[in-house]
Amino acid sequence: LQEMVGGNQSKLKRDMNDKFGKLKAELRRFCKDNATKPEDEQFEINSPFIQVKSREIRDNLLSRHSVEPFLEEKEVDGLKHFQGSKSWACVTGNELGYLSANRGANAIVWSEKAKAN
Question: What is the spatial distance between Cα 50 and Cα 13, in angstroms, rounded to a whole number?
Fold first, then answer.
């Protein structure tokens, strides 16, 4: 049990209990996919991009939920009020390892173009 709660597992566990957990998981998935593309096809990841992308993900999650419910009530309420502020984008980008220079073991390795943000 101790091993499950330590390190990156605890962060993933927190994301799943977070009302924005599914949004963050989709954002993480997008960024990982983006990093695998050729450098000239990659989006530059910065806080304004995270703001726009997270709002797009929010809209997509709510749209999918309206067709076939899969979100918990707390998630729906959270997403309906989610604004994707610059401060949220900066904190989330740093938490996920996309904006910070101090990256963890699961952090994305960005191309030189993406680092130029």
Answer: 22
